[in-house]
From TrEMBL:
UniProt-recorded name of the protein: Transcriptional regulator
Protein species of origin: Rhodococcus opacus
PANTHER family: TRANSCRIPTIONAL REGULATOR, MARR FAMILY, TRANSCRIPTIONAL REGULATORY PROTEIN
Domain HTH hxlR-type, residue spans: 11-110
InterPro entries membership: HTH_HxlR, WH-like_DNA-bd_sf, WH_DNA-bd_sf
Molecular-function annotations in GO: DNA binding
Lineage, uppermost ranks: Bacteria, Bacillati, Actinomycetota, Actinomycetes, Mycobacteriales
Renumbered residue ranges of the record's region Disordered: 138-157
Amino acid sequence: MSPSSATPARCSIARTLELLGDKWTLLIVRDAFWGHSRFSEFTRSLGVASDVLTARLAMLVDEGILERRAYRQEGSRERLEYVLTEKGKQLHVVIGALGQFGRDHLPRPGSTSPEYTDETTGEAVSLAFVTDDGRRVPASTLHVQQGAPAPAADSQG
């Protein structure tokens, strides 16, 4: 393995993209936030081929982002639905950031982009970088640097 191919896996962004970098995967997660949980709901909403949807749902379950739960409608056989786990719910910020970027930079008439509001006040909210004391940091003053490598895991178990 060349150094250039080994290096990206050390980056948390690269690892996350290996997991979520497919558009169908992110759209399934988005739809799960919108309350979709059944295979038929994802199919109808996304128009994705059933084999692709089956593979993405299985991967999201394997990675702990969705969990399968059994349900049964009266008179029908038991089926499975897919529900976000706590790990999956942490992707709300990712989905929100993609939605905010799209609204700001790729607007379309009649868009169904998600809108986020404070449940208590109804006030619109947006994503931001915020310091520990609550001060909002504008993008123009944000500094980003490569993090230090994490220490190697103890291989002696």
